[in-house]
Amino acid sequence: AAPRAAIRRRSRRRxxxxxxxxxxxxxxxxxxxxxxxxxxDRVYVLRYPVLDVNAxxxxxxxxxxxxxxxxxPSQAAELAEAARAVTTDPWTLVxxxxxxxxxxxxxxxxxxxxxxxxxxxxxLLRERGEELRRAWCAEWAGAxxxxxxxxxxTPIVPPTHTLRREQRVDVGGRTVLLRHLGRGHTAGDLxxxxxxxxxxxxxxxxxxxxxxxxxxxYPLHWPDTLAALAGLTTPDTVVVxxxxxxxxxxxxxxxxxxxxxxxxxxxxxxxxxxxxEAVARRAPYGGETALTAVRRGYAELSGAL
Length: 305
Hints:
Layout: E1 37-40, E2 43-48, E3 53-59, E4 64-67, H1 73-84, E5 91-94, H2 100-103, H3 106-109, E6 115-118, H4 119-140, H5 145-153, E7 161-163, E8 166-171, E9 174-179, E10 191-194, E11 199-203, H6 222-230, E12 238-241, H7 249-272, H8 276-282, H9 287-302
Parallel strand pairs: 4-5, 5-6, 6-7, 11-12
Antiparallel strand pairs: 1-2, 2-3, 3-4, 8-9, 9-10, 10-11
């Protein structure tokens, strides 16, 4: 077995994920020197500099599995080139959730026609894809204009194969488990488990290079979902976050504690009739991140979500 890569232990201070990180990767601009790093036996992670997003490659005998496809056809082409430097085997694709930076490369990579995702993620891309694309283009036009321009022209290809709770996938003799543990970062988050390597690919249920993103989140459900993920870990588990460096079970426990504290603040604030802004000022993560979380939590409590 390959030596396990160094993983990030829990830190109380995490650098914010910058929208301007690596001002490349847009239309006609290539990021040079991309390569996968082996984090466990035949499990590789590529950390793409634009939005600091991770893609994971699991290699078996004569087959491979690629988790998340980045933001656009040009980024996906770079991802494919890096993956082909590791293996020439055919791959199956998995989307951890429906956000563009994890699935808008689908069309460029889905040569085999197999893309796994949660049924909620597939439905969102199928039914609201154009609406979501317009919102994302507007959101990133200032910080990443080249990326926003490419998003506008990117074909939206939803998952072709969906699951509700769990799906076992054979990857060249290796068992990989796709699991939906509950709502959290979105309604349709998947965790990809590689049991023989003790690796969990968590998508954006776990964030290392910045605070959690609550734009489509369920902050009152997220702690329970992350607790279920933590229950799958051992002291040696490598957890691949959606963004940033691989982490360990202790990091996951720390993020779970923060999300739990936030959820109770939201419940207490709602029960007391406190304005969302007042709760957010005291909440973990602070600023706009906390305010978005509190508003989403209030919507959950009022039945609007």
